[in-house]
Request: fold
Amino acid sequence: MMKKLRTKAGRWFTVLPIYLLIISLGTSHAMAGALDQPKADGMIGEQTNGYLGLVRQDVSPDIKALVRDVNAKRKARYQAIAGKQSVPLLEVEQVGGTTAIEKTLRGNYIKDNSGRWRKK
Reply:
């Protein structure tokens, strides 16, 4: 079943190809491994906007740098997908957020649309 989203401009598009591209371009194994412990420790989490966020502000500079690096790589991938699919970046980011939240392990943090961090 393919899910369709309506853009603000009123046009419909199929998000299945975007999901597949995001999954196929997923975070490298080394990068994903580096995120596992900070996620498990409740320092960082996934957001609906497709990017990592700081659950706590008292994290080390290394964790902040990791989040910036991962988010920069995600943005570059999202921009490439948006260009290839001829869809707005915002829509690709939202699909990326949904995908990342779906893949988030139980007990790790996610930020909901209301802006609140909660455990999945």
In short: Residues 27-119 form one domain.
